[in-house]
């Protein structure tokens, strides 16, 4: 059986205590590999390797650091098929999605930040004849990057790339549920010639390796994407040591469909925003509010397209819905479907586990599911389900739609469908969401600030915001 290893000081190494966890393929329910169950000793070795590498790495010109990151991007592109297969096997997502979204984006992350570091500059404040102040942005030092299982390599590299570009050394922990592509990245980092210790990858559980990482005194900052509760826990652990934090947490995103929109496009894209990656994207729009005059038409067209989504083996080109990431997560999503019935929802389609024949007979498949008739303040419309389950609700006025859209503890993203430009801006500005899409969804420009309001997180990633996060400004004042 394949055994993954940690990547510490430029070497692939076994966990110090020799303990491993089983890695399950969601589409088959079978164990296909073992992943290190690392502990504080492994984390400490990784932090030490990063500390040794730091002085030379931060002293390299940004251009040279960038060249290595661009090389890594090229290697990811050259290994697209291998990485996409690994991602699909590990996570359950359709191979076609991994090939067109996850892996290309991982390459773009390195290419983007590899060059962005050369465009990063700092300010000068001149007091005529009196003094000149300039700002130096120092790399923070050794930082931790912790990522979740839904977009494994995509989110892992989204954190690592800006940290390295800014001159920090990294100890990164991928999700223990989906560590395979992070392991493959170790080999590519070696091949790209990344100096030993600049990037270290430690595998293991949240309470094990993760907790040791966030508590380590050598870690100056933590960039985390994952559940809101874990984010709260990390904030509590990190606060006494004054570690800088960037927390990208959950969402319960509204999708507002106004009657004047291009309905065909709104339905087509809402299928993606509801069910892409089996609904396991923090940006998915799980609460669809439709203006009453077009509600029935939207519903009919939407349901017809939901029913046409093929659930099946992620390796098949025809598959649109792969497996959920784990049996435990499938059970969690099924429990919300039970709750939706209890809360008085009307099931319009889906709602059941799917038995896929052949090699996927024991996989974690679920029908894409749509409910209506649920109150905007019920639990199903308030809590993050993180699966292929959405609700439809008609609305009568813009105020009502905004009130419901903003009526959760989350504030990550929102989508507006309308042809009225004035309304689009007016509604966008009133939405409590860090990202608002108008007549589109998941359109990402890597230069834009990315992050959530309210319980969806703290801080912004993306573009220069990420480089600012991984650096510390220093004011130098010179008397003229
Ligand atoms: O996430 P966790 P889980 C949501 C989604 C999901 C729920 C729980 O609703 O059902 O969160 O998912 C590491 N110290 N999202 O349990 O636990 C962990 O090992 C340090 C939203 O998988 O937050 C993994 O690497 N690290 C989401 C990472 O944190 C710790 C994506 C995320 O795991 C740790 C995924 C600790 N004490 C789930 N405990 C999004 N916003 O995209 C855990 N980890």
UniProtKB/TrEMBL annotation:
PANTHER family named among the record's database cross-references: 2-AMINOMUCONIC SEMIALDEHYDE DEHYDROGENASE
Originating organism: Hymenobacter swuensis DY53
GO molecular function, one term: aldehyde dehydrogenase [NAD(P)+] activity
Keyword line: NAD, Oxidoreductase
Assigned protein family: Belongs to the aldehyde dehydrogenase family.
Pfam families: Aldedh
Residue ranges occupied by any Aldehyde dehydrogenase domain in the UniProt entry: 19-476
Annotated active site: 248
Record-linked InterPro entries: Ald_DH/histidinol_DH (IPR016161), Ald_DH_C (IPR016163), Ald_DH_CS_CYS (IPR016160), Ald_DH_CS_GLU (IPR029510), Ald_DH_N (IPR016162), Aldehyde_DH_dom (IPR015590)
CDD domains in alphabetical order: ALDH_F8_HMSADH
Protein name: Aldehyde dehydrogenase (NAD) family protein
Gene3D superfamilies tied to this protein: Aldehyde Dehydrogenase, Chain A, domain 1, Aldehyde Dehydrogenase, Chain A, domain 2
Domain of life (superkingdom): Bacteria
